[in-house]
């Protein structure tokens, strides 16, 4: 190709940074942490980068060959040479398509494996967090972080990494070739860079905040939806459909407004790029035409510059768009890492006591506990011998459930100690401790799956015969066998499809199968009809036989056989003794019994 006879001195090259200093909290550390996940697959990532480099080079080679064709073959009417060059041009474009496909295909695999690891780590981390964390968070909002935010990161990794590297290589290659052909036309093409910088600075300063708001409102809306769906019966009972719809509309409006402004500002980017692209093309055509008339450049050079000006602005457009996408992903990544950085329950020391056998002795010694600076238990002191039944009685908020949570080490006492078989529970690993405990709670949660699988949750290695025997002990076998598929009957999510009483019987069967030394019953017979209560109470009597039991009950007739009854009020034990002893004292417990009998 003929080149211009004279070349003005090239302008000094300066590195242009199109990204204003981010205002997102820990932007760079979050980005670095995100990219560290990609670094775990350096081999495949290297192949992708090789394909990106090849694709960028081939993309630049195509327009260059077109210029060569014009100057060296079309202008000289060299038909044979033109045919050969067109064949080479076909090979270049086919190879460009192949390398583009390979880089996208391999990068999709890398991105999916990366977010798979992130989602797995996040889900595992959630299981290591203390219960206090979940007490303060909406479940739907947490679900949004595991699903929506991770998926947002996935989409960004799928496209942004390739686009950013490809754009940088294309920009670098285009500038090098343009400087070689005509520094003056290169300077004309670069005139759009300051305009682009100013436009991008104005847009990104607004989109960054909007995208973060959008992610926050989306998480809050998901939490509200999850809460509403879970409590649909309560909503209908109190005819609050209109109020719920109104609140949903308000939350949805906030998300809509945040999304509207985020997308509106980001929508300015392609419009700005199109305008600058047309401006660059016009400048190249106009200035190039004047230079050609003066013999400083050839027609082929003008064609190359016209195409490179598009290839020059397109990477800038891609970088701008990917930066916009990256902002959204960073906002999601911050929310994900916020969970992953939340302190886990303290790591269990490997030297913790191992309990191969538990007799079931329980002792609380001067236990005090506060929940977020709110005193909940004060100097709780009691002892239960193996096989005894201890009942906890008192108004709501008196600390009954908190005692159970401390016994199971869901929380640790602020002062004092809890003992099992003479061992401080803080010296026993949580898993080892809970292995010897069985729980039957007021709301018996059942998983989606078969009845057999739900009972076997108590001991995963149990045989079918052991599952059926546990169901017989729990008075559940007869109703199970009346179901269409017996033990293979599949339950709907949360056990819907069977009655509350039947769910309780299955929960008791699950506890029977676990064969614990210590049994915890929290309102196990509440909200149950009288007939079903008889079946449940009979099953509970069998279950408690020979086991240390800690029972919370509002129906006082169910705990009259308890060895100890602890009456709590405002976090303190105000009375203790057997049923007959407390009746004789004619104190608070006697008043509760009298009120219960009169109701």
From TrEMBL:
<feature type="transmembrane region" description="Helical">
    <location>
        <begin position="82"/>
        <end position="102"/>
    </location>
</feature>
<keyword id="KW-0067">ATP-binding</keyword>
<keyword id="KW-1003">Cell membrane</keyword>
<comment type="similarity">
    <text>Belongs to the ABC transporter superfamily.</text>
</comment>
<protein>
    <submittedName>
        <fullName>Lipid A export ATP-binding/permease protein MsbA</fullName>
    </submittedName>
</protein>
<dbReference type="Pfam" id="PF00005">
    <property type="entry name" value="ABC_tran"/>
</dbReference>
<keyword id="KW-0472">Membrane</keyword>
<dbReference type="GO" id="GO:0016887">
    <property type="term" value="F:ATP hydrolysis activity"/>
</dbReference>
<dbReference type="Pfam" id="PF00664">
    <property type="entry name" value="ABC_membrane"/>
</dbReference>
<dbReference type="InterPro" id="IPR036640">
    <property type="entry name" value="ABC1_TM_sf"/>
</dbReference>
<dbReference type="GO" id="GO:0005524">
    <property type="term" value="F:ATP binding"/>
</dbReference>
<dbReference type="InterPro" id="IPR003439">
    <property type="entry name" value="ABC_transporter-like_ATP-bd"/>
</dbReference>
<dbReference type="InterPro" id="IPR003593">
    <property type="entry name" value="AAA+_ATPase"/>
</dbReference>
<dbReference type="InterPro" id="IPR017871">
    <property type="entry name" value="ABC_transporter-like_CS"/>
</dbReference>
<keyword id="KW-0812">Transmembrane</keyword>
<feature type="domain" description="ABC transmembrane type-1">
    <location>
        <begin position="47"/>
        <end position="328"/>
    </location>
</feature>
<feature type="domain" description="ABC transporter">
    <location>
        <begin position="362"/>
        <end position="595"/>
    </location>
</feature>
<dbReference type="GO" id="GO:0005886">
    <property type="term" value="C:plasma membrane"/>
</dbReference>
<feature type="transmembrane region" description="Helical">
    <location>
        <begin position="281"/>
        <end position="306"/>
    </location>
</feature>
<feature type="transmembrane region" description="Helical">
    <location>
        <begin position="43"/>
        <end position="70"/>
    </location>
</feature>
<dbReference type="InterPro" id="IPR027417">
    <property type="entry name" value="P-loop_NTPase"/>
</dbReference>
<dbReference type="GO" id="GO:0015421">
    <property type="term" value="F:ABC-type oligopeptide transporter activity"/>
</dbReference>
<feature type="region of interest" description="Disordered">
    <location>
        <begin position="1"/>
        <end position="20"/>
    </location>
</feature>
<keyword id="KW-0813">Transport</keyword>
<dbReference type="InterPro" id="IPR039421">
    <property type="entry name" value="Type_1_exporter"/>
</dbReference>
<keyword id="KW-0547">Nucleotide-binding</keyword>
<dbReference type="InterPro" id="IPR011527">
    <property type="entry name" value="ABC1_TM_dom"/>
</dbReference>
<keyword id="KW-1133">Transmembrane helix</keyword>
């Amino acid at each position: 190709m003929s080149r211009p006879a004279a070349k003005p001195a090239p302008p000094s090259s300066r590195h242009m940074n199109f990204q204003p200093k981010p205002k997102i909290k820990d932007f760079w550390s979050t980005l670095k942490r995100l990219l560290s996940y990609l670094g775990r697959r350096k081999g495949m990532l290297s192949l992708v980068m090789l394909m990106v480099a090849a694709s960028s080079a081939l993309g630049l080679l195509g327009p260059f060959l077109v210029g060569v064709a014009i100057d060296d073959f079309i202008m000289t009417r060299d038909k044979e040479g033109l045919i050969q060059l067109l064949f080479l041009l076909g090979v270049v474009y086919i190879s460009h398509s192949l390398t583009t496909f390979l880089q996208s295909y391999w990068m999709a695999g890398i991105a999916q494996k990366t977010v798979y690891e992130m989602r797995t780590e996040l889900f595992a981390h959630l299981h290591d967090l203390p219960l206090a964390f979940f007490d303060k968070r909406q479940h739907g909002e947490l679900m949004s972080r595991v699903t929506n935010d991770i998926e947002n990161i996935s989409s960004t990794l799928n496209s942004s990494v390739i686009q950013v590297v490809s754009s940088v290589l294309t920009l670098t290659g285009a500038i090098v070739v343009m400087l070689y052909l005509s520094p003056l036309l290169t300077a004309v093409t670069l005139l759009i860079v300051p305009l682009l910088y100013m436009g991008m600075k104005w847009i990104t300063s607004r989109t960054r905040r909007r995208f973060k708001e959008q992610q926050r409102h989306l998480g809050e809306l998901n939490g509200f939806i999850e809460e509403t769906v879970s409590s649909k019966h309560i909503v209908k009972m109190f005819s609050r459909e209109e109020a719920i719809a109104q609140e949903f509309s308000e939350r949805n409006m906030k998300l809509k407004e945040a999304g509207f402004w985020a997308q509106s500002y980001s929508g300015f980017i392609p419009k700005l790029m199109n305008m600058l692209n047309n401006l660059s093309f016009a400048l190249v055509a106009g200035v190039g035409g004047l230079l050609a008339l003066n013999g400083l450049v050839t027609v082929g050079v003008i064609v190359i510059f016209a195409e490179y000006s598009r290839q020059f602005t397109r990477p800038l457009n891609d970088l701008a768009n990917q930066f916009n996408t990256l902002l959204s992903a960073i906002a999601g990544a911050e929310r994900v890492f916020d969970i992953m950085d939340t302190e886990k329950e303290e790591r269990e020391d490997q030297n913790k006591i191992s309990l191969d056998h538990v007799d079931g002795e329980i002792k609380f010694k001067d236990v005090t506990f506060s929940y977020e600076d709110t005193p909940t238990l004060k100097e709780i002191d009691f002892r239960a011998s193996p096989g005894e039944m201890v009942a906890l009685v008192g108004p709501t908020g008196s600390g009954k459930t908190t005692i159970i949570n401390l016994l199971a080490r869901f929380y640790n006492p602020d002062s004092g100690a809890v003992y099992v078989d003479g061992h401080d529970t803080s010296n026993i690993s949580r898993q080892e401790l809970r292995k010897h405990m069985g729980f039957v709670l007021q709301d018996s949660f059942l998983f989606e799956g078969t009845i057999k699988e739900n009972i076997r949750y108590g001991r995963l290695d149990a045989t079918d015969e052991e599952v059926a025997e546990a169901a017989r002990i729990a008075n559940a076998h007869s109703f199970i066998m009346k179901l269409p598929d017996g033990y293979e009957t599949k339950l709907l999510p949360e056990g819907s499809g069977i009655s509350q009483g039947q769910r309780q019987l299955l929960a008791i069967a699950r506890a029977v199968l676990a064969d614990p030394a210590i049994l915890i019953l929290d309102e196990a017979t509440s909200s149950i009809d009288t007939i079903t209560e008889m079946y449940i109470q009979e099953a509970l009597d069998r279950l408690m036989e020979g086991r240390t039991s800690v029972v919370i009950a509002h129906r006082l007739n169910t705990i009259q056989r308890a060895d100890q009854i602890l009456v709590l009020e405002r976090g303190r034990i105000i009375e203790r003794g057997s049923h007959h002893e407390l009746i004789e004292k004619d104190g608070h417990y006697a008043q509760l019994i009298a009120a219960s009998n009169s109701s």
